[in-house]
Amino acid sequence: MRYLLALMALFLSAASALAASAVNFYAIPTPLAFPIAIAADRNGDIWFLESDANKLGRFRPESSSFTEYNIPTVKSVPVDMAVDAQGMVWFLEQDANQLAVFNPARGTFTEYEVPSPGSQPYKLAIDKSGRIWFTEFSINKIGMFDPSTKKFKEYSIPSKLSQPIGIAVDAKGGVWFVESNSNRIAGLDPVTGAIKEYAIPIPFAIPTELEVDRDSNLWFGARKDRKLVRFDTVSHRFTEFNMPGKRVPEGIAVDGDGFVWYSDKWEGKIGRLDAVKKDFVEIEMPLSIKPYAIALAPSGRVWFTELSMHKLGVVDARAFSGKRGAAIELTTSEKEALKKGN
Q1: Pairwise CA distance, residues 258 & 215, whole Å
Q2: Is 297 a domain residue?
Q3: CB within 10 Å: which end of the chain, N or C, has fewer?
């Protein structure tokens, strides 16, 4: 009996240690930064945008150190970002109506004015040629910037007042985006400029994020009905995955194994969908924690921005190994530690 109790204690201790190491937080130096976007570069450094502080931030995991850079245009409202193959950090300035790039080697910014005034650039994606594709929320267009020529090109969307938000580029170079108001997925052919639209079968899905997986399927969240949705870019078929409980997906990322990761700021969760097994696993965090944007690092760790405490969070994906249809629950003391940002 004592032996059995000892084994049970050892098991519970190991489970607790796993949960405690499953999530960690790092406080951003600038208070009330409102970190709204995040990306990882090929070296594993984490880049993020501080929307309210008007800064670009860099976090080095190996030294747990931050560096912050003031964006040249004041009150620019940076909203989305990506790192290209050369390590250049590209981001959008919504209120400034600009596309900007930061050169880490030189520590310099360059800003480019979007041709159409008041376009409200919202989300961006980078293709294999290094071209920057972005959505123009207020004027119903898709924009493209070619760094080699320093020139923009814009494409009008067929549906009026479509309010494009999320955007992604597939393996063949096809550009895809979501129309949040007209409730469609659309594909843009970069060669011809032609745009084809596909109605989302879920009414008022209000999709925002758009990610592409290794098979060129598109993923987005249907916020109204709390689903993750896959769109096959070949067959043009939609597949719905009902999320557990009352989840509302915010940030979405797809890893090399095909797992779909998501954040839920309303219920303080980071989750993973195994689409093959149709299985969800989530980490249960305190409701006071608001995970938002999400990014995958080369190390396999899942990074996210946290809005209520203005921190960066990281999830050890190994905590999900072997889990099926379950929640990774933290103990009361662990939740209290997370509330304090430990």
Answers
A1: 9
A2: yes
A3: N
pTM metric for this prediction: 0.89
Per the domain annotation, does 9 fall within a domain? no
- Diameter of the chain measured on Cα atoms: 76
Cα–Cα distance for residue pair 101/83, rounded to 1 Å: 9
**How would you write the pLDDT of the chain (342 residues) with one tens digit per residue?**
333 333 333 323 333 333 345 789 999 999 999 999 999 999 999 999 999 999 999 999 999 999 999 999 999 999 999 999 999 999 999 999 999 999 999 999 999 999 999 999 999 999 999 999 999 999 999 999 999 999 999 999 999 999 999 999 999 999 999 999 999 999 999 999 999 999 999 999 988 899 999 999 999 999 878 899 999 999 999 999 998 877 788 899 999 999 999 999 888 889 999 999 999 998 878 878 899 999 999 888 999 999 999 999 999 888 787 666 566 655 555 566 666 655
How far apart are the C-alpha atoms of 15 and 37, rounded to whole Å?
32
> Does residue 6 lie in a domain region?
no
241 three-state secondary structure:
strand
| CA distance linking residue 95 with residue 97, whole number of Å | 5
| DSSP structure class, residue 331 | P
* Residue 293 CA neighbour count, 13 Å, CB half: 24
Give the CA-trace dihedral at 116, 121, 123, 129, to 10 degrees.
40
Characterize the bridge pairing of strands 269-274 and 279-284: antiparallel
CATH number at residue 279: 2.130.10.10
Q: Is 172 helix (H, G, I), strand (E, B) or coil?
A: coil
| Cα 207-212-217 angle, rounded to 5 deg | 90
**Residue 128 included in any domain:** yes
User: By three-state DSSP, how is residue 216 classified?
Assistant: coil
Give the domain range for residue 304. Answer: 25-339
Amino acid sitting at position 240:
E
Local structure of 167: helix, strand or coil: strand
Backbone angles phi, psi at 149, to 5 degrees: -110, -10
Of 191, 257, 248, 254, residue with least CA distance to 221: 248
Structure tokens given for 276: 């093959």
